[in-house]
Amino acid sequence: MEELRLKALVESVVNFFRVHQHDDVVIGMPYLLEKEGPYRPDCLTGTISVHGTENGWLSYSAPLVMIRQLLKQLGETDTSAQNMKDMVGEVANVISGNMRKHFGPEFHISTPVVTKGVSVTSDSKRCYVVPLKWRQHDSSIVVYFREK
Amino acid sequence: MIRLMIVDDSNVMRRAIERLHGNSLFTVVASAENGVEAMRLWEETDPEVVTMDITMPEMDGIETTKRLIDQNPYIRILVVSALNDEATAIEAIEAGANGFLCKPFTDEQLQSALEEIIRE
What angle do CA A114, A53, A144 make, to 5 degrees? Predict the structure, then answer.
């Protein structure tokens, strides 16, 4: 992954957890996705489409148990399915939106689409996975930006 | 108490902002998930201050800001967005917003930003 893209992504992720959750996240070594992973029904994924200076998408996937923790850390008592989807969508939204500082005002993001499972599909060409660890929970960001 | 309307497509964010103002200068009179709903609720509740997200379906925060200012030039609007570049902040201010706060933010930053815009 191009250095600027990785820097922008890492900065956004670290900032989100530090400010929003008052806690640090550990960023694992990014790797190129080579094959489809197993379906994870215990996870939710928030996906943001990107177009403009960069074209592609970014998704954030986390297990339900972690999303519940993220909500509680915010002081949220409603851990319904709808709110869990909302939370994972908001995480994807903030991380993507914060990348605009690096890519400029023509880095346009969509509203999040939330799905059950993890966004690991076999037609994900040249997607990078950035593993994250927060309070012993594993989650991940998968990002695909079309080559310029 | 100052009447506050919260506009954000994320229910989690709306509730987070609402919780912060349970015991403060503000009373939350409306909570909208997009600009169209914000315009409708503005008519019903006449808020004095608004926190406004930008990226929302139906009608975004910039357009909603312009329309609210058009209807009531005295309304105070704090744009609260994950889009953290300078050009977006300028666009929000030029649309009529009184302040711009980037997500993620701390409770103290939100409180301070709201107090700043009502002080003007």
Answer: 45
Query: A145: closest CA among A53, A30, A61, A14?
Result: A53
Interface test with B, best of A78, A100, A114 (most B CBs within 10 A): A100
DSSP character at residue A85 = H
* Token pair for A81: 């399915």
Which pLDDT tens digit goes with each residue over B61-74? 999 999 999 999 99
Instruction: Please state, as a whole number, how many other Cβ atoms lie within 10 Å of the Cβ of residue B118.
Output: 16
- Longest Cα separation, chain B: 34
Q: Please list every residue in chain B whose beta carbon sits closer than 8 Å to the beta carbon of residue A101.
A: 84-85
Name the β-bridge partners of B31: B6
pLDDT of residue A39: 66
Sign of the dihedral through C-alpha B110, B17, A15, A3:
negative
Closest by CA to A15, choosing from A98, A132, A103, is A98
Task: Yes or no: say if A110 and A94 are a contact pair by the CB < 8 Å rule.
Answer: no
Distance between B57 CA and the closest CA of chain A, angstroms: 7
State the DSSP string of B45-100.
H--SEEEE-SS-SSS-HHHHHHHHHHH-TT-EEEEEES---HHHHHHHHHHT-SEE
Q: Which of B32, B113, B22 is nearest to B76 (CA)?
A: B113
Compute the average pLDDT of residues A106-111: 92
Q: How far apart are CA B93 and CA B79, in angstroms?
A: 9
Question: Which ipTM score applies to this complex?
Answer: 0.89
